[in-house]
Amino acid sequence: IQVFGGVLMILVGAALVTGLWNEFVSWIRDAFVSDVRLPI
Prior knowledge:
Helix content: over 70%
Shape: extended
Radius of gyration: 12 Å
Largest sheet: none
Oligomer: single chain
Structural class: mainly alpha
Number of helices: 2
Distance between the termini: 27 Å
Strand content: under 5%
């Protein structure tokens, strides 16, 4: 579990740096919570 968490944090960090995180968050928002405003 610790290894998985570490890998996940590295992937999220890389996504944040490359700008893919914003694309991912937008996709999640459109796919699942179209009516809800997220506080991020």
